[in-house]
Amino acid sequence: MTPHTSPRQTWKALQLRFVLIAASLCCAHNTALAAAITVSTATELQNAIATANSSGGNATILLRDGTYTLSDTLYVNAPNVIIAGQSGNREKVIIQGDAMSSTAKVKNLVRAAASGFQISNLTLQKSGWHLLQIVGELNADNAVVRNVIFRDAYEQMLKVTIDQSNYSITSDNGLVENSLFEYTAGIGPQYYIGGIDVHGGKSWTVRRNTFRHIISPSQTVAEFAIHFWNQSADALVEKNLIIDCDRAIGFGLDSRGNTRGIIRNNMIYHSANAGIFADVGIYLEQSPGTQVYNNTIFQEHAYPRAIEYRFPETTNVLIVNNLANKPILARDGATGTVGSNFVSAVRSWFANPTAGDLHILAPNTNVIEKGRAVAGLVDDFDGDARPQGPAVDIGADEWMSVQTTLPCPTNLRIQ
Residue 303: its pLDDT value, please? Predict the structure, then answer.
């Protein structure tokens, strides 16, 4: 836990900038043998990708600051192609379609159908389908998405697909971090929307992202801000901030389940009047062996539960050390180990719930050192070490008697 008045704010910002720069240099190193191509227009961008495809990939395409309005999808069909904003400021490099609409000419903005695809330091907005599709049915592994704004898609923003007639080929080992997923109107265009929607993916990591306003306007509930299902397995979802989304994190759904995976150190907030279909915070359905621990969930809408796990296929789950203001419920025969959770939190405990800041304001005997040890739990939402005392705290925030860090930023916009 960290107060907003810490004098280390500037240092924390510099640390984050250093991490992003280092990551960019690492990406560049991976393709050091390929000369970078720098582009300034949508036509130049399309041509650079066509050249990368025809030459076998291993290309870096840098975009100068500006708006790139596409007339067609960017089809990345060769391995190890990097698309990145040159300046590092994701607000200043915008790739966009013609509309957020079912009638939009540009359906997907970017379709990555080969392994080693990377995209960073830019904004993707306005699509008829998805802003980014990773084509799992073509074995597009090791995708990296870093410091990207996903904004205003007519369907799910980042989609990982699979061929349901061949589950042996999937997209594996992907990474999505330090990115923002949002609807700028404060609500989505229809119910068939979501943030990250992964079918069949194995060993993906989703961390330190912010999700806002993935809300259905009519008919039924929206999909999750983060969703792994349809024979996905072993995902790690941690340190994400999810604000006013109909459903926050889901593993499995309907008859298309998930296996194992970890959901930890996430902060989830939903206000009272954000959408009419507000639902559960974390949901496991046919998701055996999944671990859900040290999350903080504060929901001011009418849905009665914070975490649910469901159906007999959901076995051997671990749900511990979670802090919430609503109950945790097993449904329809699900089983597992559930304990050391606290589900009667009140608003006054938290720094700024409306902004999604669910750091504990002061030492609280309901949560401090009341958690249990979990293998792999070594830090909290902010990266502060756990435990700080004899035992870990309940929730995403580890209280520190001497504050040393700031909470993760809620917008993650690097200037």
Answer: 97
